[in-house]
Amino acid sequence: MTSTDDFTFIEDDGTQGSNPTKLFDDYHQFNSGKTTDLDVQIVTALRAKHPDLIVTTVPGGNCNLVQFAAAGYATAQLDDKSESVLRWRGFIGPAHRGGSGYLADSIFFAKWHYSWNSEDFILYTIVEGFSSIQYILKEPRGHETTSSHSSVVDSLLATIGAWLIKEEPAIYVFDGYWTRSTKLWQEVEKAEWKDVILDPKMKKALTEVASKFFDSKEIYEEYGVPWKRGLIFHGPVGNGKTISLKALMHTIMDRKQPVVTLYVKSAPQSYHLRAVFQMARAMTPCMLILEDIDTIVTNNTRSYFFNEVDGLENNDGILMIATTNHLDRLDPGLSKRPSRFDRKYLFPLPNKAERSLYAQYWRNKLKGKKGIDFPSKLCDAAADITDDFSFAYLKEAFVATLLELARSHENDEEEEEDEANLDGGDDDEDDPLDKYEFWRAFKEQVKILRSEMGDGNDVDDGNPDELPGTPRAEHAEIVSLLDAIRVQGIPQPRKAAFSSTVGETEGADSRARFLQNRLTESPIIRDFSLVPKTKHAKLGNGAWEWGI
């Protein structure tokens, strides 16, 4: 057998040839079978390739440099000449029906030429598993060494941090994690107390309750009373709880010293409640809203919630408002314990005077509208025929009336027939108000809505058999879409690159799920305390993670 001495092994050290080695070559090698700590290997490789530069490692979710540049405060130019780029290309659907959508990249490995404040940096962004890591390279200044921090990089990171925590009007929303929603604030900004129809005394109390609380810190301290308060808004659905909350949010944000609102949609587990109250304590003074508290505080989380509300930790500056449609279903520890929820505000079905005021509200909105004859005497008449209607039903009656009138005016040939249909079969043939087209249409819509109300046995209990978004409903929708594709003759796709289906295999599909999370437009705040304490979770410990 021929000896191996007959062969000569030549090791390529990367210096041969005209092309210098690239970090991507090492990145490829590190991800091709080596057990990792990838971060250690990347930092070592960067220091070897750039021995004269300081290497600073920053978690991508802590101070995101590319996001900062995208906001216009710096420039980041992709360098695809000296380094390879690893990225996925995908289509992002429109935010609303009728839009065109757009193409976007999810970048897993890239080198950037980064410029900020007349300073130039080398920036690498590298994805490791579900984490993103940034490596910033900068030459030392003054007495700095390659092993010390870079004062210029520190200044950049401090600027990004100040930008992230800059106070701007927004609502903080918790639904498994915290997000900062400017879109919800835009809706809240439209709400004003003049649009809220309530009993005058109750309305006055609601408009003052928040201001009195946030203006009374010194009084609470003087008497040694914890500066916290809890309110419950309760009553049948559709009677003004939500619009009152929106108006209240708007009021406290318009203060000389704005107060932020934290809005909790769901918190099914104890650690979710922990994240909610940690955020509330960090944002004080603030208003904490627990929407449908009977679905948030369950038998499994009740004790934990009580400990968070009146346990050992300091909740000063938190105005907590809970809403429920079923006060009788709440645990007595919630509804009958003053130290947790001090006052309860009932939002009942509107009485006749309130229904008349609501009709007057619509009359004011419709003043000057062509083809709408809505005299003031119709307001009391509308209140008379809408007993037992909630504000939601009243709104539907007015909206449906306007739609009916708009349709009838579109075609002059059908107008007479439509009016005849509205007049026919009615016991109010001698009603003097029937000369008003608006009144005839309104009566008809009220009649339809009252028939839909029935005897109350068909009221939605909040637990439909099938809801959009449940696994069974989603599966049925996906199957129907695939059937449509098959009918059109389009080849069946292989496993989708952008799939986020639970239970997919690891590898490419796990990266696909990561990609789907990265291709978002809104910054996301994540609480690292909820993540298992791996090294990667610790990378951002104590900081909020803002997604790209």
CATH topology of the largest domain: Rossmann fold
Indicate the low-confidence ranges by residue numbers: 455-475, 481-548
Helix content: 25-40%
Q: How many distinct beta strands?
A: 14
Please indicate the percent range of residues in DSSP E strands (runs of 2 or more).
15-25%
> Which term fits the overall shape?
elongated
What structural class should be given to the helix and strand makeup? Answer: alpha/beta
What is the CATH C-level name of the largest domain? Alpha Beta
Strand order of the largest sheet: 13-9-12-11-10-7-8-14
In DSSP terms (H or I, runs of 4 or more residues), the helix count works out at 20
Pfam families: AAA (PF00004)
Keywords: ATP-binding, Hydrolase, Nucleotide-binding
Family: Belongs to the AAA ATPase family.
Organism: Pleomassaria siparia CBS 279.74
Describe the structure.
This protein has 548 residues and is an alpha/beta fold. The chain has helices spanning 23-30, 38-49, 65-70, 151-164, 182-189, 200-214, 217-222, 241-253, 270-282, 293-296, 302-310, 332-335, 352-365, 377-384, 391-410, 412-423, 437-453, 471-487, 508-518, 535-538, and strands spanning 54-59, 75-78, 86-92, 102-116, 119-128, 131-138, 171-175, 178-181, 228-234, 260-266, 286-290, 318-324, 343-346, 524-525. The strands form 2 sheets. An 8-stranded mixed beta sheet has the order 13-9-12-11-10-7-8-14, with helices on both faces. Strands 1, 2, 3, 4, 5 and 6 form a 6-stranded antiparallel beta sheet that branches. β7 (171-175) and β8 (178-181) form a beta hairpin. α1 (23-30) packs antiparallel against α2 (38-49), α5 (182-189) crosses α8 (241-253) and α15 packs across α17. The protein is elongated and about 115 Å long. 28% of the residues are buried.
